[in-house]
Structure formats: C-alpha cells, structure tokens
Write a structure and sequence with these properties.
Blueprint: H1 8-15, H2 24-28, H3 46-61, H4 65-77, H5 82-91, H6 94-101, H7 107-115, E1 119-121, E2 124-125, E3 138-141, H8 149-157, E4 166-169, E5 174-177, H9 192-199
Antiparallel strand pairs: 1-2, 1-3, 3-5, 4-5
Helix pairs in contact: 3-9, 4-5, 5-9, 6-7
C-alpha cells in the first residue's frame, strides 16, 4: 500500500511541529517551506485550518486518507466522545504501540519492524501495523529479533515509564499494553474537534 515517502522535515516545517520526532531542520528554519513560508500575512479559512489539522494527524500516525476516514466512521459509531474514540483508536494500533514501548525511534521504524515479522502479540507473530492492541496484550520481539541493532539503539535512548498505559521490560524485549489511554494522557498536539468538524460537513 502507498505511503508518504517524501521529505519528513518539509512536513514538520509545514505544521511548525516536530511530528516525526526531533527536527534540526525545524530548529534552523521555524517557518513553513517554500517561497511564502516566511510570510506573516497568511490568512487561512476555517476549512483550511480544519484540513491542516486532519493532515497533521494523518502524517503523525502514518495513515492514508481511506484508513483515517474508516477510523473516524468507527469512532462515530462507537459509544462515547467521537474525538476521544478516534485518538484512542490511533493509539491502539500495533505500530504505534511498538513505538510507545520504545522498540523503535519513530513510527515509520515501528511499522517496518511489524511488517517484517519481528513482532509478536501474545506469542503469535503479527505483521499488520493496523492490528488493534487490547488491554492485557503482551507485545514482544521474536527470539531471533531480540538483538537487532535498531532496537538496542532505540531502547538505550528511550526514556523509561514515559507512557503510563504501556509497561516495558527491556531485558526480555517485551512489553504490555495496560489500558487504552484517555485523551488527556495522549501527548500528541492534535485538536480532534477540528477534525470532527471537517468530517461533519
């Protein structure tokens, strides 16, 4: 399936946020890309603001439009607040959980670990990045993959206990998804209300 494989820092500068992780390019040039990036007279319509927020969420979690739309429709049909349901669905994806556990430095890297069959869920190999992780699920690296250099590098630099809803055992290269996080616990700077308003039109 198609993925965005263009320059990541160009997108980070567009949204003026390090959505793909630490960005030296954004630090050097804290303004939008292109010849109008420095302009202080950029007036955006309400629709443009809503669309930009949706695009930011898509790029942050690495989803395509159809996938994101399907998640929104599922969030709308579920009980509870649509915006929170949407964020919780994004956080419950396997690739995102692998990233939160610290096995990968970025979601792109986490997706690659999953798709290359390095990850197991409750002892079973799962190579679907969009797989929905449920509370109590144990996510581990396959025995043959536990000494991967990229994982060692990521775990050595990842802060411990940063996210309360996941529990990591770096020694055994495994972790547990404890519970679905609330909207307040999710650190991503995404205004889901703007996304709901956009799709509700």
């Amino acid at each position: 399936m198609a993925r965005y494989r263009g320059p990541k820092q160009k997108k980070a500068r567009r949204f003026k946020e390090p959505i793909f992780g630490a960005s030296k390019a954004l630090e050097r040039k804290p303004y939008g890309p292109g010849q109008h990036g420095r302009s202080r007279f950029q007036r955006k319509s309400e629709y443009a603001i809503q669309l930009e927020e949706k695009q930011k969420a898509k790029y942050t979690y690495g989803l395509l439009e159809k996938q994101f739309r399907n998640l929104y429709e599922a969030a709308t049909a579920a009980d509870g607040v649509t915006g929170e349901n949407l964020l919780q669905a994004l956080e419950s994806r396997l690739d995102n959980t692998v990233f939160r556990l610290g096995f990968a430095k970025t979601r792109r890297q986490a997706r690659q670990l999953v798709s290359h069959k390095h990850i197991t869920v409750n002892g079973q190999t799962v190579n679907i990045p969009s797989y929905v992780v449920r509370p109590g699920d144990v996510i581990s690296l396959r025995p043959k993959s536990r000494n991967l250099e990229v994982v060692d590098d990521s775990l050595s630099s990842a802060p411990r206990s940063k996210y309360k809803w996941v529990e990591i055992d770096a020694k055994s290269r495994s972790g547990k998804f404890l519970y679905v996080p609330t909207m307040e616990e999710i650190p991503e700077n995404i205004n889901v209300q703007l996304i709901i308003e956009l799709y509700s039109k």
